[in-house]
Amino acid sequence: MRTLHIIGASLWRGITAAYPLILLAIVWEAVARLGYVRPVFLPPLSAVFAQFWPLATGGDLVQPLLVSLYRAAAGLALAIVLGVAIGFLMARMRVVRWLLDPLIAFSFPSPKIAFLPIFILWFGIDHLAKIALVAFTCVFPFIVAAYAGATTVPTHQLWAARAMGTSNLGLLRRVVLPASLPSLMSGVRVGVPYALVTAFTAEMVAGGGGLGGEMVLAQRYFETPTVFVYLLIMLATGYVIDLGVLALRRRILRWHEG
Amino acid sequence: MSAPSSAAAIKIRVEGVAKRFDQSGQPVEALANVELAVREGEFVSIVGPSGCGKSTLLYMLGGFLAPSAGRLLVDGAPITGPGVDRGVVFQEYALFPWLTVFDNIAYGLREAGMGAREVTATAERYIALIGLSGFERRFPRELSGGMKQRVALARTFAYEPSILLLDEPFGALDAQTREIMQDELLRLWRTTGKTVLMVTHDVSEAVYLSNRVCVMSQRPGCMVEEFAIDLDHSVEREQVVLSPAYTAIRNAVWIAVRQQVVVARRGAA
Amino acid sequence: MSAPAQTTPAQTLALPIWALHSLSRLTPFVLFLAAWQGLAKSGLIDPTFLPSVSAVGHALIDLGASPSFYTDLAVTLGRSLGGLALGAAIGIPLGAGMAVSRKIDGFFGPLVKATYSLPKTALIPLLLLWLGIGSATNIVAVMFSTLLPFVVYTYHGIHGVPQLLTWSARAMGTPQRRLLWKILLPASLHAILTGLRLALGFSFVIAIAAEMIAANTGIGKLMFIYGESGAYDYMFAAVAAVVALAYVADRLTVVISNRLLRWDDVENRLG
Description:
Chain A is mainly α. Helix content of chain A is 82%, strand content 0%. Chain B is of the alpha/beta class.
């Protein structure tokens, strides 16, 4: 009897928490069905859901999604490797810091998407240009995070490790890297959504497949339900990945007091 | 300073007040059956062990919190919320950081609808009174703790509420500044004749400033003892503080508070 | 006989410290441009892929003399700022409302949280369907992307205002309904301006992205036209111009914010 009560209570809480969304869904369906707007502008929500299956079975859903995810992931991996390396170098060598800091500060506020034409010139319109853009956009948060993490390692930890005979590389691997993990995880939290958005956007601009490319194609052919499907998939993907990053963060930072 | 005659009207009345808080599921009784009466023009201090609920009582008198039981009356009418008849000075000053010293002090005056010229005159008068002439255009972040507290006092005195509620107003100040501010407060009180209710953990301060000190028990707080004080403030501070009269009362109050602290410690053990 | 006093580098060069500091910050740019020029002229890379600094420089000067370039820049800037203003006009009151009213928070909170994970550029094709190609799509797209920072930062700013400030104001006669405007918003100014700076960055990105996807005017479109017609030095020049513009806009925002926040603690200054 008590478990029933708990289930009921959490269900009620879930409904009250999400009621605006449910309301929105109902209003959407009603407005579309009652003919207040033309279906090309606002297809009924049910029609959008109905479009999932044909897209999925026709290879127009999972395939493009995977392509986008691949591009985002590859670019992100590049960004992490480069960003952390540069950030640590900047923390370690004053010359590197002097050289790179003004350049980074100058390009920080710039819209990285403006560089896409250059990357397309260099790498064409397939995967590489998009991966390059993702890497370029996402490298900055990691440089900042790695630099911040490395410069806040307590000096005494470093001294203790040295006293125990740790080499420079060992120092990096076993002291600086773990100590910088919280900061790096903050970089991941920022970088992952950026990577996804940049991949989608680059595809929308330059075509070449992926979810973004398919979305623009559907828009050009006025296939509105398809556009909505892709939009919802993007939303769901973003949400799932956010959850994943949070779970990862919790796992990696188990030992951290922060 | 002589205590107001017993014929003075009762300004503040606290009857059987209790306050319960819900702290993450656990009910906490902060106050239980508090009784207090303050006459017009009196300077009353409330002292007691840490956490006994004296600030909570003050916040209820300010109208920011409602009692769980009992009543709080001002001039015979129950308190329903904050009001311009009860000015409040907090330990953390609570100055508006985006306003200059002048604008902070003028705030209450402007809320009262005072005309611009009168506002300027009154505000400048108070700024001079607290010795901060020349600092009108400064922001609170540029002031020292003592200066901020002076502005906080001036801000509340300026629009002349009939009651002043002070919550450990000098707690954040160093010892020397505190003494200067105490004499400043005394002077302001004597020139305006307002009713003052002060909460403090500093027994010496309470005895020095007030004509009545009320001792609160440990949590849940209620009034356990009262001391009437009649010190001669026409002489220098040193003479007052070193006088046997002051020392006797101070010791008595201190012992009363100490007893509550010991009981609290034993209760927690 | 005393030893000669040590001279600092500043004194050696007879320059004030700030000038020396600026020179030090500019040198990496000079080195970067020198490296670029060297690489371009070395013959290692096809000049089509990497126009030399001098070529880009010429293109830049050329663009600087053509009014249509400024028109395109103005169009993009207008769309960014227009969307930004709309985002602020809706986002700040919404964030404030959510912070002070449990009901409003209960209604809009889930909606806001639902859009957290949505890449706002995903709305552009939808807006193209609804509003067609043109400034309306761009401005609305920018508005949607700037809404979230304004809502979130305003919300948290207001929640962070110490209760004693509202209590003091009420004790001094401010009625409940005026608290938001007189106390909560000024006290949250730092948070709101931080949100503004973030939103400004977003607005440029979305405006240019939208132009690149489908537009007839604007710098995003221009960059693609140059790319498609092979005028790569002009393309690079346009990119450089956009980067410079974004930097100036950001700096301006920081300077103005710090002026508005001159009453705030120094550690809270915007970088």
